[in-house]
Amino acid sequence: KRERLMEIPISLIHDFPDHPYKVKDDENMLELVESIKTRGLIQPVLVRPLDDGTYEMVSGHRRKRAFELANIEKIPARVQELTKDEAILSMVDSNLQRDEILPSEKAYAFKMRLEAMKRKAGRPSKENGDQFGNHFEGRKTIEIIAENSGDSRNQVQRYIRLTNLIDPLLEMIDKNEMA
Q1: What confidence tens digit (pLDDT) does each residue in 69-80 have?
Q2: Among 28, 44, 67, 137, which is most exposed with the fewest C-beta within 10 angstroms?
Q3: Quick check: 2 and 81 in contact, CB under 8 A?
Q4: Among candidates 56, 36, 49, which has minimal Cα distance to 4?
Q5: Which residue has the higher pLDDT, 20 or 30?
Q6: Separation CA 147–CA 141 (nearest Å)
Q7: What is residue 139's DSSP assignment?
Q8: In angstroms, rounded to a whole number, what is the distance separating the alpha carbons of residues 80 and 48?
Q9: CA 38/CA 28 separation, integer angstroms
Q10: What is the DSSP-derived secondary structure letter of residue 136?
Q11: What is the pLDDT of residue 132?
């Protein structure tokens, strides 16, 4: 995809809808704010343009928040023309590389990726009667997610099932109060 580098006013960047990763104003955030103030931004955020002239954040929600806390009005951004599903796949892939990721974040990320991949694959052809996403060179979407994440296929399915829990139970899992 064609991409361009720009400085964009933060006020024109909207958060990605249903972004599964939490952005916390914690000690790590304060360190990021200080780093940005002293050294600037090392890795620009990734946004996609919207029809109304604004942008949607794909990757860099924490960096955007750090700029807000540092009272910096514009942020360096890579602007890329992406469909919603391409943006979902990019967002999930870039955030799964983080050191600390909560089970709920991983669960919703895997679910979003699975749904985007299924939409991208489209309806099964007449030769492929499998209704569950076997459109990627004979492999199922869940297998591709597992391969890319380093988790087993069964573990990916377990994570996705977590999205069916009510919030209080999901919070207990995130806090390691429940297995």
Answers
A1: 999 999 999 999
A2: 137
A3: yes
A4: 49
A5: 30
A6: 10
A7: B
A8: 5
A9: 15
A10: B
A11: 47
Q: Which of 98-102, 103-107, 121-125 has the lowest average pLDDT?
A: 121-125
Over residues 19-30, the mean pLDDT reads: 88
Which residues in 39-69 are b (16+ Cβ under 10 Å) and which e? eebeebbbbbbeeeeebbbbbbbbbbbbbee
What is the number of alpha carbons within 13 Å of residue 42 lying toward its C-beta? 6
Phi, psi of 33 (to 5 degrees): -60, -45
Look at the pTM and tell me if it is higher than 0.85. no
* CA distances (Å), origin 8, targets 46, 90, 145, 170: 11, 20, 32, 35
Looking only at the bridges linking them, the beta strands covering 3-9 and 45-49 are: unpaired
CA distance 20 to 107: 8
Residue whose structure tokens are 């890319």:
148
